[in-house]
Every structure is written in structure tokens, then in C-alpha cells.
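Lab notebook, page 48
Experiment: co-folding of the full assembly
Goal: obtain a model of how the components sit together before planning crosslinking
Operator: M.T.
Materials (sequences as entered):
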Amino acid sequence: MSGQPEAILSVERIAVRFGGLVAISDMTFDVRNGEIVGLIGPNGAGKTTAFNVITGFQRPSSGEVRYRSRAVTGMKPHEIAKLGLVRTFQRTSVFQQRSVFQNVLTGLHCSGRSGLWDTMLQSSREKTCERELENAAHEILGFVGLEQRAGEQAGALPYGEQRLVGIALALAAKPTTLLLDEPVSGMNHSETARAIKLIEKISASGMTILLVEHDMQMVMQVCSRIVVLNYGRIIAEGTPAEIQNNPEVIRAYLGQGKKRA
Amino acid sequence: MDEFLQHVLNAIILGGTYALLGIGLTLIFGIMRVVNFTHGELYAFGAYCMYALVMLLGVNFFLALPLAMVLGTALGAIIELLLLNRLRGADIDTTMLVMIGAWIVMQNSEQLIWSGVALSINSPFPADPLVIGPLSVSWTRVYVFVIAFLLICAAYYLINRTTLGKAMRATFQDRDTAALMGVRIDHIYTATFALGSGLAAAAGALLGPVFVVNPTMGDLAASKAFAIVILGGLGNIKGATLGGFILAFVEEIGAGYVSSGYRDAMGFLLIILILLVRPTGLFAQKERVG
Amino acid sequence: MSRYLGWLFVAVLASVPLWLTDFYLLHILITTGIFVIAAMSLNLLLGYTGQLSLGHVAFFGIGAYTSALVSLGFDVHVLPEVTVGLAPKPAWFGVLCAIATSALTGYAIGKLSFRLRGAYFVIVSIGFAEVMRLVAVNWVELTQGPMALNNIPALTIGPAAFEISFLRKPAFYLLVLAVGVICYIVIARLVNSRAGRAMIALRENEVLARSLGIDVTRYLVLATMVSAGIAGLAGALYAHYIRIVDPDIFLFIYTVTMVIMVITGGKGTLAGPVVGGMTFGAVPEVLRAMEIQPEAQWIIYGVLMILIVYFLPRGIVPAVQAYFSGAKHEPANTAASAAPKVLQK
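Observation: model returned without errors.
Model output:
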């Protein structure tokens, strides 16, 4: 283990049971600083449940999640998000009725510094803070490449761009680790390429990323390390090349196509 | 002790009709997710039907009840088809507002037609109560309890043993899947609303001769029905039945030993207390609503 | 542009006492104004934060009773031997107490209600108002029950020599207008701020809001407190205007009236409750002028409600907005959107 960067996120022996149904039986893996880790597995393997547990939306039946050496199991979702662990959603990933700009401004909520009195009195502090947030929102939109969509209603955008807004939202929350829930699912070829570029750009800026995906080509291309989940347990871990040749993984996916799992 | 037993007896008898009210509403609430403000008005409608049939048209007392119930069911179907059908997929407050509008129209129509005077319905039973040891109960109330009990059994049978009931339960559990399996959701909704309304009308027709009939009687009934639904959990008829009896019991004991002025508040206080502890109701299986 | 229109509107309203000599109409404007303030407060909770609160009249009534009791003074037995009392205080102090008491109630409701959602919350909120009504009816020692609290002092402000009295209608009208404008500004500033964005986020997609670090409970409680406080203020104004307060103030029908005003005007818009309030403040009067029986009036009321909901589902203000501009602008209010089904797979 020496020479490797410290684990920024560790999932330790997580189990999730819904009554008689075992969604996750025993999940243990790490994400190290600066990595892009892909969490893959056949349908029903427990990937989204894993996400929900890590981000506090689901209490595990047993086990621990640690973020930067701090136990976060059982913390509320908004507390975990404030620690820097931010996720995106696959469905309804944006505030549909609001403009793209208002979406990102909302995402910047925790960066705001002004209080209620400032708001009521419209003090100069309030105005300065609002301007700062607006500038930050423009920056994020520029980074994500959606500047020209700023005034449009988020729900009216084409699906691929909506997902990008979802990523912009997550970025606005100032994450140190970004959890992407099926970032390219449902996207066509060009949308996928655009999303991949953005994800690589985010990683290049130093962000640690954990993503769940079904699109194998995308995962092999983007991720530095892959963790494979099946029947609620990690069955393999390694580089894309290692995973592609792992007999257990192949067996898990047997009967399904090469590109999409 | 005798007094206590008398309260228990009163509660059991009242509880049956409360249960009817509650079952009707919990079905509508649970399956259709509609905040049905007209439920109380259907209760009043049932009572007024009884009055019109028995006192004005001279219909036989025992025949008038099923007639009132049929009329109530029909009215429920009309309301559903006329108002709610168009609102599929609208948000809950839009539907709520329409229901409130319907409630206003119905109650004031009743006021216009019948004026505010309290009306009473003659019961064919002897005036002397049935006496069992230290307890006494009027024959009318015994009749009410028996019929309510039969109707509750009928409702259970319908929900649990018939195809319609199966379709209703399927719609309650997962509307989209039920639709995929061939359930005609529109028909189920109409049937549910009609059935729930019919039960409310039955409750009103049963209690009309016991108490008096006036245009605002529906409001109190509605509030109790809502309380029962919360107690029992949305869509849970066992819960609603038990809830009806529990509410009657709490009211009787509360009114008897604490304060009669707050009798009607007992229900609300009870549900507020319970919901503080168990936000999904006493018996609910499903997670939070909405 | 709309800002100038707004101030122009206020100026026109302010000029009314100068030319309107019919005191009955002035009375209608005053009561409508009080209801508009209450409707604005409900809009904050219902329209902007998405809480289906149907017990709003509870805050209104608590404010009315608090202000009345503080300015009349009271003396109650909390235990057989122990009494709690308060000597009469100036009316303006009563109003402040009303705001505080209502806001505190709002705080409690906000904290507790978060565990209840959707239909459950609706029922409990109705139940709460009803319990308040029954307390007002039965706790006769404090509230005089159905006999009502009478002779509530009129509102006066200022030291004895320079006292401004709001006893006469024109003065009270201007007071209500001023309070209304202030409340409007407070709400407008709130919803357009960072806190307001959080409230709207909580309405739109609570799970998404949480995932961004927004403490939704905190903002729900904040919205409820501010909403309750303003409703309490409206109630206090009512108490010092009508100068009689009885338990009927807690009747569900008043909540219904406020809800109608908000939803038909356009929930989630700033102008909505104002437009809705003035419409449904005027409609009963128009109907009454046509000498229609009260029951028939209500029937027309109900039918009108249903029609507006069908034909202008988002309310009058958004319909007007959509008419004048394209639909590309951010719509001000919304249909309930489904939260992501987080436990799906």
C-alpha cells in the first residue's frame, strides 16, 4: 500500500437490507485522491444503492463510510454534501422549472455568506455577495460550456445538456469528490463525447471522481481504476485492462453485449 | 364501572359508522391521492336522502337505506367523471381547490334547498331502549351497528375477494404497473370514488335518524373521517376500521371524563399526537405520502 | 418597468381616501387589504416553499387573539390556586406580541411538520386550526368563548401629545396599505435572495436540494415562521379594526378564502395574492349588490373557483404574464415535479 495516495473515500463492509431483500451484502472499496473510479456491475447489482449510502440518502444496515478519515455514515445528506462529497442524479437531475442560471445559483447556495438581515435591508454586503455568486455561476457555466443556455428553462433543454446542467449544479456545490450517477446514460454519441470531455476536464483540475455507469466503452476510456459490483459484493478491482480480462467479471456479464452491460 | 361500560358500548356502536366513513375516505385518498373535501357532503347527502325518502316520499325505512346508498354512489361517480377526470396528472393543490369548490357548491345547495333547519327522521323502532343489565342502548343504534358491521364486511369482501377489488389494490400499490397489466385506471378511479362516496352516504343514512339532519353535519363528519384515515394510514382499510373504533372510543372517554366541549377536538389531538411519534400513521405500511 | 407600475399602483391606492367618500366601500377595501396581507403570507408557504398548509387561519387567529388579549389585559387560572395575568398594554405592543407569538407557533409547526408530507400535512394543518378554534370556544376564562373579546382598543402610535390614532377608517386604510407594502417588500426581498432560492429548491426538488448541501428543514422552518408572523400581523390588524374577536375567526372557510386568493391569483408569484385577493375581495361584494342570497353567492363563488382552476390553472397573474411575453421566460410558479426516485434500483 505504500507509495499510493491516501484513500479520500473509504467504503467499509457496507450492507443494505430491505426487509428480506439484500441490496448490498458486503461492499468494501476505496477511492484515492485524484482518481477517476468507475463502479460497474450488472443491473440490480446495487450500484445506485451504494451511491445513496455514501451520500447519506440511505442508511446502511451495517458498515462504515469514511470521507477524509471522518465517519459519515448516518449523517444527513446535506451535511455530507457540505463536507465536499457531492453527487449528481440520473433522473430529474436539475430544477426543471428554473432557468439554467438560477439552477447554478441555487447550487452555489453554500458559498453564500450574507444573512437574513442583509437580505431584508438590501445592504451593500448582500449586493456584493449576490454579485460574487452570479460571477461564480457564470464561471461554472463557462467551464461546463453552457454559457449560451444560461437564460433558458432547464427542463426545456435537450436531455444531454440537462445532464450537463446537473454536473454544473454539483460543481457549484464546491465538491472535493464528485459522484456521478450514470452521467452518460441515455445520451447519443455526440452528447456522450461532450460529457466525457467535461469529466476529463474536471478530473484534470484535481477533482476526485467516482462514477457509476453502464456504458463500458466510456468507463474503460475515462476511468483510471474500476470496481466491479455483483450481487451486492465487490468481485473485482483493477485497471481497465485487468478488469476486461478478469474471468469473474466476464462471467458476471455473460450473455450481455460487449459495449453496454 | 357501569358508566365506563356504557361509554364502551356507545363507542363500539358509533365506531362502526365512523369506520364506514373512514374506509370510504381512505380508499379515495389512498388510491387516487385526492384530498376529498366532498366526503362530508356525501355523508350529509345520504342523510338528506333518507329524510326525503322516508319523511317526504313515505318510502319504507329499511328500503330507504340501500336507496340512499345507491344514490350516494351515483353522485360520487358523477363528481368523479365531471370534475376529477379532467384533472388527471394535475398537482395536488389544483385537485384540492376543485374539491373545495365542489364542497362549497354542495353544502350551499343543500342549505338553499333544505334551509338550515334541523330535520329529524322517524325511526320505526320502539322508543324504549334495549336494556342489558346496567347498560342501555336504543334499538335504532343497534340497527345502525348491525348494518354498519354488514357494510364493513361487504367492503372487505369487495376489496379482497373480487376482481374489482384486486384491480383497486393493484392501482394503490403501483399505478403504472397496474396500467401496464391492463387495469383501466380511469374506471378504477371512478369506481373508487363512487364506492367511497357510497359508504359515506350510507354512514349518513344510518346516523341521520340517530342525530338530526342539517346542512353542516358533513363538516364534522369529514374532519373525523380525515382523522381516521391518518390514524389508520392511507389506503389501509383494516387501519381505517380500527381507527374508526379508536376515535369513537377516545371521543366517548374524553367527553365522558375530561370535557365534553372538547369532544370533537379529541380526534384531532389524537392524530396530531400520533403523527408526532409515527409520521406514517399507526398502521401504515407505505412510507410517507406525496 | 413593472417596478414603476407597482409604485404607481400603490400611489393610486394611497390616494383613495381623498376621493372615496363611501365608507362602506372603504371598509371593504380595508378588510380586503387585511386578507391580501394574509394571502401574501400564505403564498410564501404554499406558493414558494410548496407546503400544502390548510391551517393558515390558525396563525391569523392567534395573532388576533394575542393582540386583543395583550391590549385588553387578562387574568387566568393555570392551576386552581395560581393565576397568570397581564395588565392592559398599548395596542401597538399587542401587535408586536401577536407577530412574535404567531412566528413562534410557526417555528413549532415548521419543526414538527417536516416529518409529515403531502396529504398528511394537509390534514394535520386543518386539524390544528380546528383545535385552536375549540380552545377559543372552550377556554372561556381567557377568551370569553363565543361571547367574544369586545371593546378592543383602537391602534394608536406615539407619545400622548403626538398620538396618531387609527380609529377612523381613512387612517386605518392607509395603515393597512402601508403594512401591505412593507410585507410585500419583505417577501419580495426574501424570495429573490439566496434563502428564497433555497425555499424554491425545496419546493421543486427536495432531494436535489439536499444533495447540494441545502438544509431544507432550516428553510422550511424559516418560511413557516415568516409566513406565520405576517399572518399574525394581519390578524392583529383585524382585531384592532373590527375590535371584536370571536372563535369564528378560526373557521376553515377563512383559510379556504386565502387559499382561493393565492391559487387563483397565481401561487409562487409576488403579484398573485394581491390580484387574487382583490378579485375575491370584490366578488362577494358584487354578488351581494346584486341582491343574491348568501347561499347562492357561495355557490357562484365555488363555481367560479372551479372554472378558474380549469381555464387558468396556474392562476391569473401567470396567464397574463404568458400573454404579454413569450413562454420562454422562467415561469414563476410550477407544477409539482417528482423528486428523483432515489431508492429505485
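Interpretation: Chain A touches chain C through 51 residues (CB under 8 Å).
Next step: discuss with group before ordering constructs.
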